[in-house]
Specification:
The protein contains two helices and no strands.
Length: about 100
């Protein structure tokens, strides 16, 4: 029985070692090279995505500036129209007062 347990143990040990070798990570230099390559890819992705986000932000800011300028022009026109209407009304009232008196 002891011989049977020992042979099972040795068989299990050899199968485990074979599986371990099949799924073992790459050698140190090769693994470090892969890690550097992936880090470079990540850095490139972040730069690219950052550039895209910057462009989107600039577009949004440009649209916002354009909207503000448009609203400012509309407000300025409305204020000017109000001023003119007030001046015309005041002039009419002044003329009416003079014609009555």
């Amino acid at each position: 029985m002891a011989a049977s347990n020992l042979s099972c143990f040795c068989l299990g040990l050899s199968v485990g070692a074979a599986i371990g070798l099949l799924f073992a990570p790459k050698p140190g230099d090769e693994l470090m090279g892969d890690l550097r390559e992936r880090a470079g890819e990540g850095r490139d992705f972040i730069r690219q995505r950052g550039g895209e986000l910057r462009e989107q932000a600039e577009e949004i800011l440009d649209r916002g500036r354009s909207n503000v300028a448009s609203r400012r022009d509309q407000l300025s026109s409305a204020l000017e129209a109000g001023r003119r209407a007030y001046q015309e009304a005041a002039l009419e009232e002044l003329e009416l007062g003079e014609s009555k008196g």
